[in-house]
Amino acid sequence: MQGGELVIRLPGRTRSPETTILRHKEVHHFFFLPFREQPIYSTRAHVFQIDPNTKKNWVPTSKHAVTVSYFYDSTRNVYRIISLDGSKAIINSTITPNMTFTKTSQKFGQWADSRANTVYGLGFSSEHHLVKFADKFAEFKEAARLAKEKSQEKMELTSTPSQESGAGEIQSPLTPESINGTDDERVTPDATPNSEPRTEPTQNALPFSHSSTITKHWEAELAALKSNNAKLTAALLESTANVKQWKQQLAAYQEEAERLHKRVTELECMSGQTNVIKSHKTELNHTIEELESTLKTKEEEMERLKEEVENANQLQAQRDSLAQKLQETETRNKELEEQLTEVEHRLEASQLEQEAFRKNLKTLLEILDGKIFELTELRDNLAKLIECS
Fold first, then answer.
1. CA-to-CA distance for 369 and 371, rounded, in angstroms?
2. What are the distances in angstroms from CA 209 to CA 197, 200, 214?
3. Nearest to 70 by CA among 9, 128, 137, 120
4. Is the pTM of this model over 0.70?
5. I want to staple 123 with a disulfide (CB 3.0 to 4.6 A). Which of 46, 89, 137, 367 is the partner?
6. With contact defined as beta carbons under 8 Å apart, do 79 and 72 qualify?
7. At 214, phi and psi to the nearest 5?
8. What is the pLDDT of residues 86-100, one digit of tens each?
9. How far is 389 from 314, CA to CA, in rounded Å?
10. Cα-atom radius of gyration of the chain, to the nearest Å?
11. Which of 147, 141, 85, 88 is nearest to 113 (CA)?
12. In angstroms, rounded to a whole number, what is the distance separating the alpha carbons of residues 346 and 320?
């Protein structure tokens, strides 16, 4: 179980090669994959494809977030990106060394697949998932590049010995006659020893010792021929095994040639779309320039807003200072008002005291005037008395 996917092996199926089943938790549909491919990393994302008509707009291929997995084929040493929406494979992309995964925003990334002749886009729930998916893409892309280089080196090494052994075959070809001997060589060892005694009654008989020497000679020749026959048979078997190996290599080369031919065809198809891609690139450049201009304007506006915010902060500080001073002034004003009220009370009391003092003074003046009038009358009377006396 990896990334919400269940991978099981079906031993009872007659499908060849053995297969695995990929099943999502949300939907109970099945998608058969070769057993040699295993998921090595899974995540969830919204899947998009570029509009094949406009080559500009994104077309969603899934209504909701689906599981997107990296698969590794250990037999072919190939990495693939696969995603299913129900029983439909919406992504089936083989990673090649010339692919590039581009992060276009904090939560969106894309890559172009020339074999599928489309551009895939993935929308993630967070930037962390996007960064991890991009890191895995770069890692598997590098692994695909190293695997391709090793495969090319292996092809070069295997092609060199096959050519040398082929040249050796031309110089010393193996034929049935060279393995089993010619008809004359096969008959001679048996016929010659028997032919000599048959001719003895009509010719002079050879000594018995000479006939025994000839027989030993032919027996030695026969043993040498059998030894050569065994060696040649072993060489033939080895050559047959080499021929099988060369046939397998030839089949692999033919398969690679077919793949390269398809690739050339795809590139030719892509070259026909060069003008469309160039126009699309020009439009993208114009759009980028407009976006850069807009971004520059926004940056200037942001700088202006920053200055205004700084000025507002200064004004706020001044306002706080003035508010504090105003509060202090109001407190001082209240104190002065209280002092003024107290002075007014004192002034009223002083005025009352002055009024009372005036009244008392007026009374004293009236009394003084009466006393002065009485003294004047007393003087006048005294004066009259003096005059009369």
1. 5
2. 13, 15, 9
3. 137
4. no
5. 46
6. yes
7. -65, -40
8. 878 899 999 998 899
9. 106
10. 60
11. 141
12. 39
